[in-house]
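Here is an idea for our session: we take a single protein and study its fold together. To get us started, please write out a protein record for me. Start from the sequence, derive the backbone structure tokens from it, and show both lines together. Go ahead whenever you are ready, and we will take it from there:
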Amino acid sequence: MVPASASVDPAGIVTDFVRQLKPTAPYRDPTATERRAVRDAVDLLLDGPDGLEDATRLLDTVGYTARVTDDPETGRRYAMFATEPGGDGSWGMLLVDLSGELKLAIEVPHPNSDLQTEDVGLRLFRAVPGSMLVVAGAHRRAGGDRADAAHNAVGMFQVVTGRFARRGLNQIQLHGFAEQSLPDEDAVVSNGQRSSNAPLRRMADALEDAGFVTCRAWAVRCGQLEGTTNTQADEARRNRSVFIHLEITWAIRRDADRRAELVAALSSADLPRS
């Protein structure tokens, strides 16, 4: 059985995991066997709680430790799967809301590089029931930059997110940019294709309604922050599924109150709905 406990706050665990990811760490791509195990496990998790035990068994074979508990902030049951950070088999973290049908995937491809995106991701996971949060297991510069999860078509992050695309789960991927890169904007909303759809427009509207200056990449150029080379965006396009690429300025990410306001705006946009 999956180990369970009454209530564990995921915030400290996620923060500690991300803090240990270093650009000098080793990195390797997963083997075909490892990829297959994680692919099958994610499919089981997407099928619902009945697949939890089999998914746990598969993830254990590639180094994920499982925990099932209640979130003290939301009261919802969730599962957490995490590898040990720092080694070449650090594949990351998965948090899965067990309270109902999964409808939204939240992705953090550049932990400890795009600072505080993991906090935004966890806050959004808590704000939107039916979410799955995936945090990459290596710093983007690890292994001589080979670990960049948003641009590695054979990495474990791509294995996980590829199942989201194939299963039609709406995805939002969180990135960060330096203020000098686009000084007049708080956020950039795109899907990596210079086109728009209803979820993109809803999210941009929600951000602007909350006072965030938002660049809409389908309408104007946004300082090369449009995600046009993003591997997960490519996979979503091939599967005709919803992918949202959100860039957030450091001025917002560095301030906990502003991060909370950002997440409130995002959660009001009904992101699981296409």
In short: The CA atoms of residues 49 and 98 lie 6 Å apart.
